[in-house]
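Can't paste images in this forum, so I'm doing it all in text. The chain is below; anyone willing to post the predicted structure tokens underneath?
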Amino acid sequence: MSFQSAEAAPDGQSTADAQNEAPTGSFIYWGQDPRPLSYVLEGWPVPAKCPPKSWEDHAAALRKLPLRDDDIFVLAFPKAGTHWLWEVISMLKQGKAEYDVRPKEHFMVESIELDKLDSVPSPRLLNSHLPVFMLPWQEMKERRTKVVHVYRNPKDTCVSYYYHLKSNEDHVVHDMEFNDFFDLFFEGDSHPSLYFKHLKQALTFTSENEDVPFLSLSFEDMKKKPIENVKKLAIFLELNVSDSLCEEIADACSFNNLKKGAELKVPVRPPDKDDDGEKKMNYSRFYRKGEIGDWKNYFTVAMSEKTDAIIKERMEGLPYDLQYS
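Text version of the structure:
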């Protein structure tokens, strides 16, 4: 993994063997591929493709984003179940098991023009893959913003993230073999490598702000006990809903139904292309398999044993229950 300054650093820049060696304002590259994989912002690798403004300007504006008393934040590392959880909460807030025609990307704070959120009616269901320190955490503390966090075991997350990035023909990972992405995920220094740091960020925020309502759910629990977890969310959100509605929402948000529901979303971009000539978003691509244990189809025994040691070390002190089957 190598890095170059965003300000046109000369060729032959030194290799970064660890994340903290890549300075802020640098791009991180994979091998000899000229496409940047990540951009380092305040010591934290983020996707190389920046928001509408520069990453620096956007991050500064995001920290100052005015929140409302009834805002809700959904936080997760990529491919941990963000879309799933967002749809469940959306239905609970609507009081009916119907899909919101707006995609959650309309409310993903790292990738939208933030001033557009001013016109969104309350309650706003915001979401992000960013660490908490890049969010409007001061406002979240002062307003006691409800935060729902979802996590998934790292082995399945690795496989799902690989295929998600690989589906984008313009992304570096599109031409990458799974073995290489595996190394990147568990031992790299770019944004796909931040699984454990993301969990630590969530724990740090909850530990330091015990009065902020914060609920952590696991992907696997939601999959195994969907109705129970819908009810748990309703209680957390202080919503008085019937058992029958919780059952209807659990059914509507089953994997196959969610994938069908994604096809009903109103595109962020015009029907064929956006102003820059890019292809429109296909929201069903966010749903691949949604299974627990799919990692067994991709990890060799040696890979699994290697990650077991890494996971044991990096999960030390973290209270999250990782389920692999």
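The radius of gyration is 19 Å. DSSP finds eleven helices and eight strands in the chain.
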